[in-house]
Hints:
Helix 7 (150-164) runs antiparallel to helix 8 (180-197), helix 9 runs antiparallel to helix 10 (231-255) and helix 10 packs across helix 12. The strands form two sheets. Strands 1-2 form a two-stranded antiparallel sheet. By secondary structure, the chain is mainly α. Helix content is 64%, strand content 5%. It has helices at 2-32, 49-52, 63-72, 91-99, 111-117, 127-146, 150-164, 180-197, 204-220, 231-255, 264-270, 276-306, 309-324, 334-338, 341-346; strands at residues 75-80, 83-88, 170-172, 175-177. It is globular, with a radius of gyration of 25 Å. Keywords: Iron, Metal-binding. One of its GO terms (molecular function) is monooxygenase activity.
Amino acid sequence: MMVGGELVLAALVILLALLLTLVLSHFLPLLLNPKAPKGSFGWPLLGETLRFLRPHASNSLGSFLEDHCSRYGRVFKSHLFCTPTIVSCDQELNHYILQNEERLFQCSYPRPIHGILGKSSMLVVLGEDHKRLRNLALALVTSTKLKPSYLGDIENIALHIVGSWHGKSKHKGKVKVIAFCEAARKFAFSVIVKQVLGLSPEELVTAMILEDFLAFMKGLISFPLYIPGTPYAKAVQARERISGTVKGIIEERRNAGSSKKGDFLDVLLSSNELSDEKKVSFVLDSLLGGYETTSLLISMVVYFLGKSAQDLELVKREHEGIKSNKGKDKFLSTEDYKKMEYTQHVR
Length: 347
């Protein structure tokens, strides 16, 4: 009995020591940085992550940022994703930080996010590796815009997605309801996959990558708890599946020998500076960089354009005028887009 009691006592002491260590490690930065901005660290381990992740309207800062900015100012301290964090909602400060990246400031993400992004991601690596991948990203943008088929690819994908709405839309009474934001995400994803991997929206492998990528995005900004079934764990697993799929595409392209599709994967394969793991990470970074930002912008433009019947009519009139001067099966050209003066103002 004495031995059992001693074991229980030892277990309790260890548990209390762990809890004390957790609490101290959470609040110690508050004591060691008295000159840090005002703010709150919230609960040990959880911090304020759950409040930060609470969904909010895209055209608002959300209750977390609005509340903290009103209480502590536009720059405040917090504890997010298990990491002490300085949050800035100040436009001038953010601009200054971005202008001085790799000089006065260094880009980084909380360590739990590294588990999802991977150690070779452009968002994680620093120094020369980061510069090399950033230059590669600029090369992707430049080479894509120079491709003669670029605008045609975009138009084909847009027509494919709009065509898929017929007969597949949810019904609300007699009115068909289209989840446009989801369609915009699918459009952005399809364009990137086409330019980087040469895959069309109707290919099965595209749908497979999209399904895993949606799980990846859902867990990317979630509480970093790796327990089977949590969004974070699903995101890590989804990234592994995407990596396996892209590695398979790379091997298939290599086995094809001199056969080239004219996509950016050809450029990646010709590079001897990057390992296959870094090439796979670059593909994922390309999807991540354009997926949410582009789709959100498209959705917001359509949302606000729908609020103004006059602006919508002027945009439609401009597009129909340009379309009337085109042949039936001809794609829009760069010159056609340059003629869309009113559309450019709306965007």
